[in-house]
Amino acid sequence: MKTPSALQTFFENAKTQALSAIETLADADYRRFFRRRWIFLLSYLRRDKWPKIACLVLAAFAFYYIRLNVLDSAQFNVAIKPVLSGESPYSILETAPASVMVKVRGQFQHAPFKTQEGLQLQLPVKYKGNKTVDIRLNRRMFMDLVERDVSIVDIDPDSVKITFDEDTTKKFLVSKPETVNEPVLQNYTLDIQWEKEIEVSGPQSVLENYPADYTFKTAPVELAGRSRSFSEEVAIIRGPNTENLKFSKEKIPVKVFLEDTRVERRIDGVTFLLAAASGDGNRYVSDPAEISVSLKGREESLNDISASNIFAIVECHPDRVPEERTAFVGLRPREQFSDVEIVGEYKATISIEQPPEPEPQDNAEVQEALEAPEVPENPETPEKPDVPEVPEAPETPPDEPAAEPAAAEPATADEPPPPEAPQ
């Protein structure tokens, strides 16, 4: 092994001394720097200290004034619901207190809590061998319930006591669901099928208070608007002291059987009544003229109905023929047959009846009528006899004398005398 030379030893010693001197100077500078700053801060605080103290007091007053008066504050009652986590042969028997008062503050543009109905804090707990556990509440547990701009000020009380008990399971009966309101059917039979047993688990000390034949009730079944059988689920109504009990089913299936007890019958010979507007002189006809109407109701009511108790009215319009129209069918008197229903709809084709054409006559009769003599318009006045025309006398020249008329021949008995010539 080589020994270091004298030159190397000299340089190592010089290096060590230089580093120690630098560290000493640095420490002295740092101490001097902080000493100067501290002296400056103290001198600054001592200068005009009373105005500074007054400003600090005013600032604190303004802070608390704004916090207490400008911001809104409210108190809400929040229920505590412990939730047992993990598998355990124990269940939660009691929570004391069951609810706490939470005071909040903020600018309530809306409700301070995310939900206003059923404020509840689900508190996870775990059984660790002790039947009684004290849990301290803090503000962070309630942060999921409030809005973002709302702060929790106080929780009263700030702790809850949870008691555990051995867990057990027991079977209970379920009563027959009740029905409310009436279905569309007027005469019907009703039958309900439901699940008659459920299992309930919870603290042994709680379930021991329920007798073996205890029966839980269910919510009612709504029949309004129903005309046929249906199925639905109805909720089980929890009794008192059941908040720590677990039901195998919160709702049970229910089947409701509705059967119509009415009978159906057809009535023949119902004539259409054709209704036209006043002043309409047309004569309307329907095709068909009669129909058979189906009725449904109690047999006692149907035995009293005939075709005279049924009317079928069809509206007629002269500008809408021929056209198939639906008749309005009803019963009279309606009060007597209010439980009878008319089944289906009935139609008729409406048209206007044309006047009958004259019947053609026999050709012989027509020919005889043409050859018959004409009858004078006024048979009481006799016709005048024809008067023969008299020829005019020939003209004679002025120099010649007029010829004397010839002597007329005497008229015979067979011929009438000729008429005299006009003067």
Describe the structure.
The model is unreliable at 396-415 (pLDDT under 50). The protein has five helices and 23 strands. The strands form six sheets. Strands 2, 5, 7, 10, 11 and 14 form a six-stranded mixed β-sheet that branches. The longest helix is centred in the first third of the chain and has 41 residues, at 6-46. The protein is an alpha+beta fold.
The gist of it:
The chain is an alpha+beta fold and 423 residues long. It has five helices and 23 strands.
Key features?
19% helix, 23 strands, 4 domains, 5 helices, RNA Polymerase Alpha Subunit, Chain A, domain 2, 35% strand, single chain, six-stranded mixed sheet, 423 residues, elongated, five-stranded mixed sheet, alpha+beta
CATH class of the largest domain: Mainly Beta
Number of domains: 4
Would you give the CATH topology of the largest domain? RNA Polymerase Alpha Subunit, Chain A, domain 2
Q: How does the overall form come out from the CA principal axes? A: elongated
Major sheet attributes: 6 strands, mixed
H/E element order: HHEEEEEEEEEEHEEEEEEEEHEEEEEH
Give the CATH architecture of the largest domain.
Beta Complex
- Structural category is alpha+beta
Residue share in helices? Answer: 10-25%
How many beta-strand elements? 23
- Span between termini: 209 Å
Instruction: Please tally the helical runs, counting DSSP H or I stretches of 4 or more residues.
Output: 5
Report Rg: 62 Å
User: What is the overall pLDDT average?
Assistant: 77
